Amino acid sequence: MKERDAELIVQSMTRHGLRITEQRRTIARLLANASGFLTAKEVFLGMVDKYNGLSFDTVYRNLKLLEELGVIEQFQIEDSNKYRVGYFGHHRHHHHLICLTCSRLIPLEYCPMDHFQAPDQFQIVKHKFEIYGYCDNCQRHGVGEAAGTMPA
User: In whole angstroms, what is the distance from residue 84 CA to residue 73 CA?
Assistant: First the structure.
């Protein structure tokens, strides 16, 4: 499955006319093999020993490009951008519940924005909606049970 995800990322880059470099293949493999989220710094550190002269900016630009292609997703968790392989079966707009302990993603089957109406003087062009908390499994193991454990 993980190798399949890496190949799907590469195939998407090919379909969009991008040159497939060994660095881009490595980024795809790192993301596909990650058990959870990776920061841009973690991706960079996973590559820097293999590629002399690799810059952090190159890694970051490639992550942003993959996000724009829709093959990886970016989340703001604990004041840092984190990335993970997207849901290749969900090319439609969606949102998530995110477990702060295990990084489990639970997709929402509807968009909360469907029930939101902006004032007439404001045109919405995009949005992001994520809810952070603790999944049922982590709660069973005693995480997040104490009052006030989740920041507002």
Answer: 6
In this prediction the pTM is 0.73
- 71 with 28, same domain: the answer is yes
- Assigned domain for 145 exists: no
Can you give 77-145 as a three-state secondary structure string? ECCEEEEEECCCCCCCCCEEEEECCCCCEEEECCCHHHHCCCCCCCCCCCCCCEEEECCHHHHHCCCCC
**DSSP of 6-64, one letter per residue?**
HHHHHHHHHHTT----HHHHHHHHHHHH-SS-EEHHHHHHTTTTTSTT--HHHHHHHHH
The SS3 assignment for 147 reads: coil
Contact predicate 73/84, CB 8 Å: yes
Evaluate whether residue 149 is within a structural domain: no
Residue 73: domain span? 2-85
CATH classification at residue 81:
1.10.10.10
Total count of domains within the chain: 2
Model confidence pLDDT, tens digit, residues 13-56: 999 999 999 999 999 999 999 988 899 999 999 999 999 999 99
